[in-house]
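SEQUENCE, STRUCTURE TOKENS:
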Amino acid sequence: MKNVNFTNVTSRYENGEGISEANFSLQQGEFAFLSGPSGAGKTTILKLILMALFPQSGTVEVGNFSSFNIKRTEIPLLRRQVGCVFQDFRLLEDRNVYENIAFVLRIIGHREKYIKRRTFRMLAEVGLSHKRNQMPAQLSGGEQQRVAIARAMANDPFIILADEPTGNLDPETAAGILDLFKIINDRGTAVLMATHNKNLIDKYPYRIIYLQHGRVVE
């Protein structure tokens, strides 16, 4: 089982923000919302899962990796198992839709035949096969986010981290993006979504990990 476990995790910045003594688990295949006011520690938790940050105390376990003893050379291996989707899409503006997705697979070193097959499959799953030759600037916000989701799923991660993925989208488009994450989750990929959007949270019956002042309170 590939789970995410936080055990008594404290990671504080100089300004006092961050998290303190956080304890929670996300099971393989689970969907959970990460919620709370700005500065409560949501982004800190996502960075700790990616091991872009390390706790000052406590342990973060992500699949077979632990913050306690992971080697620096192993961090890229961990990140291949974790897909990331952001509020601002972070697409490569000088590459078309197809190349934005294929780029991730080329970095890892897959053969071109596999890259083509996998990229076309991801485009079909997010409903953008017909947009494969367009540039990001030619797409709507919702379409750009779908490309970002396809890119995050390209390497078949066991978990997707989504940091305010609907923050720049209108309510109808945001609901469509959530439905796409639901489909991904139904296929067995865990999803941890940081969001302020109470309407979206109320619409779906998933667990809520609520943060306040850096602590998991609910």
In short: Residues 16 and 214 are 9 Å apart (CA to CA). The helical segments are 42-50, 75-79, 97-108, 112-125, 141-153, 171-186, 198-203. The longest strand covers residues 4-12.
